[in-house]
Amino acid sequence: MAESLDIVAVVGSLRRESFTRRLVQALAAMAPASLRIEIVGIGDLPLYNQDLESAPPPAWLAFRERTRRAQGVLFATPEYNRSMPGLLKNAIDVGSRPYGKSVWSRKPAGIISASPGALGAFGANHHLRQALVFLDMPAMQQPEAYIGGVDKLLDPSDQIVNPASRQFFEQFLKSFEAWVRRHAG
Questions:
Q1: Dist CA 62 CA 41 (whole Å)
Q2: Environment class of residue 36 by beta-carbon count within 10 Å: exposed (0-12), middle (13-18) or buried (19+)?
Q3: Is the peptide bond before 85 cis (omega within 30 degrees of 0)?
Q4: Phi, then psi, of 36 in degrees rounded to 5
Q5: 146 vs 36: CA distance, rounded Å
Q6: Is the pTM for the entire model greater than 0.85?
Q7: pLDDT, tens only, 48-91
Q8: Helices (H), the chain
Q9: Residues 6 or more apart in contact with residue 81 via CB below 8 angstroms
Q10: For residues 23 and 154, is the Cβ–Cβ distance under 8 A?
């Protein structure tokens, strides 16, 4: 049996009842034992400011270290104004610095974007993909995960209620695991 992969999930929402966070928690619960998914907190990361690099805030150091140890990253984002939330962009910036010491470089990634609307946060998904190209993160291309109607996807105990959606996410997780195994260094 293959060794279990250590995956950090970076969720771009702080809301207590965030659909995006609840979806990632559901995926972590249904993931095979070979894929350990842990949400890494980004809500307490001070805004990136290069002046702080001489004595980086402890939250930056903890985030960077946890992400550096991971074998892959699952990004999950809602959409704010046709893009990713500032919270998520800040986490990306914190992890990419100082220059030459990015925790993201060559780390395989998957992206899930989620929205109650029909477009499934398409704009946020693609803006995030643009950033990952620059960060030298191989991002899984298929299956794409633009999750529309996320507000109707989970029951009160955060289980995916629709069998077709559950099947899609099982395939997504299987593909993501294969992607990480192929690209993890």
A1: 10
A2: middle
A3: no
A4: -95, 115
A5: 22
A6: yes
A7: 999 999 999 999 999 999 999 999 999 999 888 888 999 999 99
A8: 19-30, 58-69, 86-96, 122-134, 163-183
A9: none
A10: yes
